[in-house]
Amino acid sequence: MFAREANSSEIIKGAMADIIFLANDCEKGEGPAIAKKFGIRGYPTYYAVNAQGEPIERWIGYDVAQGWADRVAAARRDTRTLVEKKAAFAAQPTADLAESMANDVATGYDWAGSVALFKQARDLAPERGDALTRAILTNMVSSEDTDFTFEEIRAEGDRLLTAAGTTAEDRVDLGSMLMDAAGARGREADGLPYLERALGAATGLPDDSRVARTVKFLQITHALLVEKNTPRAVDLRKSLMPANWLEEAKRLNQFAAWCLGADVNLDEADVMVLKAVELAKTDPERVRYLGTAAEVSLKRGDAATALERGARALALDPENEDAKDLVARAEAAQAGKTN
Question: 222 with 267, same domain?
Fold first, then answer.
């Protein structure tokens, strides 16, 4: 989303006006080594560094333009290193320092720690409650499904939905987040009212709204869960793919992974992910796509093929933990069938 909005959002353009922005693909060229050096676990991760290359702010994910610009502004306001800020926070907590620490620990996927710090920031600066509540909700939804209950997540979402400044686009975003959280916890029925309200809020929004793509995904979910119309859902998902996606390994794998997650259209998903394996240009890509292919086979009940695909991935990268796990699960599934 950042890449799409960087050239169109005046907010982002303003934030980047006097900074040097370097983008790095952590999966190509020198990218993997850079990701390892900086301990990057997820994408996108942003680092603001001083002239000595020391991090003064870092955060993960892109939500809305203003939130991203706020992080850049925070780095400008306080140019102390993260190490110095951590010491200052321990000595005398402030809302700004709590928010900085919250964003920092989130890059390590410590969602519970991040949420606790964002809540501390909210207590220290209640006038910034809405923005900090959104950060709390975003981190809750990003977490493992055991970190926060749906009731905890819903409480933060409801708080924002009733806020005076919440726009129709915000309601679409919030509905999507709450639906995702409900689905991840096996609580789809509890998420459906938020899905319906989000689609209602989307009525009348322009086609170029910043949430237009989110609306499409909500329509897909509605087709699957409410309309029970799988062909419509698949067609809607394909409509979101870019031109020439059938010739791009990354996009083919992306579509196959969606089918896998939704447990639909698995025959076509299998064909597409195998094409992705053929089109892959590097071994790390092949390992990733073979992993998707193995998962599709497991979902289809074909443990033998899953094992073969997992073994191919493991041969390309013997230390890959995901490939090892795949092979182990495929072996267990095959043994279960044999017995």
Answer: no
3-state secondary structure of 48: strand
Q: What tokens were used for 22?
A: 């370097």
First and final C-alpha spacing in the chain: 48
Distance of alpha carbon 331 from alpha carbon 328, whole angstroms: 5
Angle, helix 321-338 to helix 283-299, in steps of 10 degrees: 30
CA distances (Å), origin 19, targets 7, 100, 325: 15, 19, 43
Instruction: Write phi, then psi, for 46 (nearest 5 degrees).
Output: -115, 135
CATH of the domain at 268: 1.25.40.10
Residue 61, SS3 per DSSP? coil
Give the H/E segment covering residue 55: strand 55-60
Measure the CA–CA gap between 100 and 77, rounded to whole angstroms: 12
pLDDT in tens, the chain (339 residues): 677 777 778 888 888 888 888 888 877 788 888 888 778 888 889 999 998 989 999 999 887 788 888 888 899 999 999 999 999 999 999 999 999 999 999 999 999 999 999 999 999 999 999 999 999 999 999 887 789 999 999 999 999 999 999 999 999 999 999 999 999 999 999 999 999 999 999 998 999 898 999 999 999 999 999 999 999 999 999 999 999 999 999 999 999 999 999 999 999 999 999 999 999 999 999 999 999 999 999 999 999 999 999 999 999 999 999 999 999 999 999 888 654
Q: 196 lies in which domain range?
A: 149-240
Looking at 59, 92, 110, which one is the last position of a domain? 110
The whole-angstrom separation of Cα 127 and Cα 115 is 18
Evaluate whether 150 touches 181 at the Cβ level (below 8 Å).
yes
Quote the CA–CA distance of 240 and 167 in Å, as a whole number.
Answer: 24
- Yes or no: say if 128 and 165 are a contact pair by the CB < 8 Å rule: no
